[in-house]
Design brief:
single chain, 344 residues, alpha+beta, Structural Genomics Hypothetical 15.5 Kd Protein In mrcA-pckA Intergenic Region, Chain A, Pseudouridine synthase, five-stranded antiparallel sheet, 8 helices, 28% strand, globular
Length: 344
């Protein structure tokens, strides 16, 4: 039987969360069989979404399956909940916003931005204003469109609460060249992370595949089920009573890769509420060190992860370039407190 997008179709006004946004939810029947997400949605005449309009919504993260942004070719098997958020105007009509940017480097081809914690990289479900993209549109006269009209200039991304360096392309030519360097692992991305507990080795490589968690679809996990290769290198920089400060380099760039790998080893990134680096790990801290843990957690309300360095070959000049950024004040305040306590 040909699956159809009809039974169980529910429309609701989600104006309190996103003014003017229409939210459509659909429970996929258990016996629907296997069908691509975009094909199923496209069969519903009530939505009146053109193929290109639907593609833009999917690319912007406005179509989710069980709460997770999905690709257009995601295969449904039955029982999932689809949520579609439809803006009152095409999502590609983004409005530039005069948001200050910390620009580390800029020329006519690209720019390198030091993204603060709390800023989302590009528009998506629940984030339609205040993103790095909105700020870039106000700052730059031109940005690449290689990642779609809703992600102008964006070559790679950082999690909302991860601070640090991002390279942005102004032309499609530069964008494609940078993406090729990423695929060939020629862009060197170096992070600093404070992790809970002590690593067994002072340096090492974590080579474990990462995929979507079956228990919590909003999270990633180390798994062999529908996973992709993920490789993380680390070096110990400093050791404190409860924590290790690591320098980390990504060979691959999977979603939440550093946070997932370190959590899997039992050393979650300090302050990370999603992967056990906040309340969960600190429950086991011995009473003598509990005060230190409480003090440090009060200083940082996010994961202690910062994209500190970027190195790549400039696509136009063909010259190697390197950019560094200081640790943000909240991250540095934690290290200062730990240093002070080590000396006392």
């Amino acid at each position: 039987m040909q699956p159809k997008f009809g039974d169980g179709f529910i429309k609701m006004n989600d104006a309190e969360k996103t003014p003017g946004m229409e939210t459509v939810k659909y429970q996929v029947p258990d016996d629907i069989g296997r069908i691509r997400l975009d094909k199923l949605i496209g069969q519903n005449p009530e939505l009146k979404l053109s193929r290109s309009r639907l593609q833009k919504l999917i690319e912007a993260g406005l179509v989710t399956v069980d709460g997770i942004s999905a690709e257009h070719n995601h295969t449904l098997t039955g029982g999932e909940q689809i949520t579609i958020q439809i803006p009152p105007q095409p999502i590609s009509e983004l409005t530039p916003e005069a948001i200050p940017l910390d620009i580390v480097f800029e020329d006519e081809h690209l720019l390198v931005v030091n993204k603060p914690s709390g800023m989302v990289t590009h528009p998506g479900a629940g984030n339609f204003t205040g993103t790095l993209v909105h700020a870039l549109l106000h700052h730059a006269q031109s940005l690449s469109r290689a990642s779609g009209f809703d992600r102008p200039g964006i070559v790679h991304r950082l999690d909302k609460h991860t601070s640090g360096l991002i390279v942005v392309a102004k032309t499609d030519r530069v964008h494609h060249a940078l993406q090729e360097q990423l695929r060939e692992r020629k862009i060197k991305r170096t992070y600093h992370a404070l992790v809970c507990g002590h690593m067994k080795e002072d340096r090492g490589t974590i080579d474990l595949p990462i995929g979507r968690s079956l228990r919590d679809r909003k999270k990633m996990t180390v798994t062999n089920h529908n996973s992709r290769e993920a490789v993380t290198d680390y070096i110990l920089l400093d050791r404190y009573e409860l924590y290790d400060l690591l320098e980390i380099q990504l060979q691959t760039g999977r979603t939440h890769q550093i946070r997932v790998h370190l959590s899997h080893l039992g050393h979650p990134v300090f302050g990370d509420p999603d992967y056990g680096g906040r309340t969960k790990w600190h429950r086991g801290v011995v009473s003598a060190a509990r005060q230190t843990a409480k003090q440090t957690l009060k200083l940082l309300d996010r994961q202690a992860l910062h994209a500190k360095r970027l190195e790549f070959t400039h696509p136009i000049t063909d010259q190697p370039v390197r950019f560094d950024s200081d640790l943000p004040a909240d991250f540095q305040s934690v290290l200062d407190l730990l240093d002070e306590q080590e000396r006392s």
